[in-house]
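Here is a protein:
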Amino acid sequence: MPTVVAFETISELFTSLSKKYRNTDKVAFGRKPNPDGEYETIDWKEVTEDVKNLAAYMVEHGIEAGDRVAILSENRYEWAVIDLALQIIGGVNVSLYTSLPPNQCEYILRDSEAKLFFASTGIQVKKAIKVFENCENLNRVVAIDQPKVEEYMEEPYLTLFDKVMAEGMKLYPKQEEEINERIKAIEPEDLATLIYTSGTTGKPKGAMLTHRNIVSNIKAAHQHIDIYENDRCLSFLPLCHAFERTAGFYAMMAGGAEIFYAESVDTVAKNMTEVNPSIIISVPRLFEKIYNLVTKSVEEGTAVKQKIFNWAFEVGRKYAEGKRGLVALQKNLADRLVFNKLKERTGGNIRFFVSGGAALPAEIGHFFMAAGLNILEGYGLTETSPIMCANKYGDERMGTVGQVLNGITVGIQRLEDGKIIAEVSGEDYPTDISSEAGEILCKGPNVMKGYWKNDEATREMIDEDEWLHTGDVGRFVDGNLQITDRIKHMIVNAGGKNIYPGPIEDLFKTSKWVDQLVVVGERQAYMAALIVPDFELLKSHAKSNNIAYDSIEDLINSESIQSIYRKEIRSYSKELASHEKIRDFRLVPNEFTVESGELTPTLKVKRRIIEDKYSDLIEDIFADSK
């Protein structure tokens, strides 16, 4: 579906939307300023004023076209205003994850040579104060919220966002002509943002994304997936990540949709019922948690409840496959008995979910499809702005990331000899092509300009033929791209077999007893796993079965609990090849989290960190095999 306005740059997207909706009360954003209050809406007239006032402030205080401005903030309306103000004056958005410690914030600020730094809460402002003196290019910090620590405001370089906006309002008449000239001067090849990769090893690299990179991806996404003016998106994935930035922010605006910000990642379940979104952009973790909650509830229910659920799932599966007639009548009953309750938990208005950032287990995808909650799984990298492929609504193929977007070409390069064995373009899409597995490559206007001040890393990523090497392994299956795993994640066992842990981990994620799982076994005779149990389920099981324990460690090491996981491992391993089977495991007493450094901000596992942290458990697993 085409966008609601024509545009070639992000700045033009904003100005065109402002013009289109200037004489209306069209809602642009929604926010919840008080946890105990209700959501309030912000129309395009207010957005336009806020963006232009902030732009005037930045211009007055020396932000030139091409200058970098950093944002350390959760998803919120102010983040959108800062970004859009930057885009219309030719500035470059450098967004930081709020989970970053001060030393990593300092590295990005210094590397990007940021001049201005916006920080949200007191916790983030504290980081800014700590690193300010070490960042020679930084001359001002703006606190979005009033810090609770009074002495923070004594710093001469620190000011409040409200004061900035008030000053900008007074400055706008003076800077209006300059801002308008800058908007006209912005070209598609100009840099729009630096997005620093949250890699699991080494220092982060700043991917340079131009207006052309991002705009081409917005338009391609709209040709692939329909976004309407009456849609409402609940935003909670980090806006500093390319997935949420393009799909959950710019693409939603380009369709005229409303963007409502969740209070936090932890409140998404509650906010869904308050916002009643029609679209949610998410990572698989949300769907895994919902799936496990539902299946756990069913298994704890009566035999009749289980029978009804299984019948409803089978009916839903047939309906999702396109069968009608009697199945359609049965689906109405299945909805009333089972699925409507799940839909109510998601707000009751979902048209579709979009899943990205990591692989979605096919079984979980099938479950949501059977419930009438379509999940469009996609794939891409920060360096590809980010979307390369996505499933289309009504043509979902679970277990794949769908078809290549228009304007983009995806290649498969054989790992053994470097030969390109498949090449698929989104314009002339073959639906019957299949290929063997290899590294996934990408060409197109969405491919980044390069890495900021790092030509060597750019050359490693983009070859002389302009193919971007993703580092992911995949293949085409009937025209749909299927991801196997990361090349760097490949495990080579003692027998020289290559094993990709991703599909194995996805298989076990459907177990109600497993919250998280990491496969280990490099240079070992067999595969094993570190398992984070579903602690709530374990506690409930212990209470029901009179299992006494003094701590979580006592509980997970008890023979009755160990026995449950041995049976679960054996059962699920039956579906795996001999060299892939999990032969042993250790239960981990803590959840892998972003805060503990074991997950990236987009909830991908940092394997090396986990392997180092739990090296004693891994050594214990394989001690008898040496």
User: Anything to note?
Assistant: Residues 280-348+350-440+471-486 form one domain. The two ends are 59 Å apart (CA to CA).
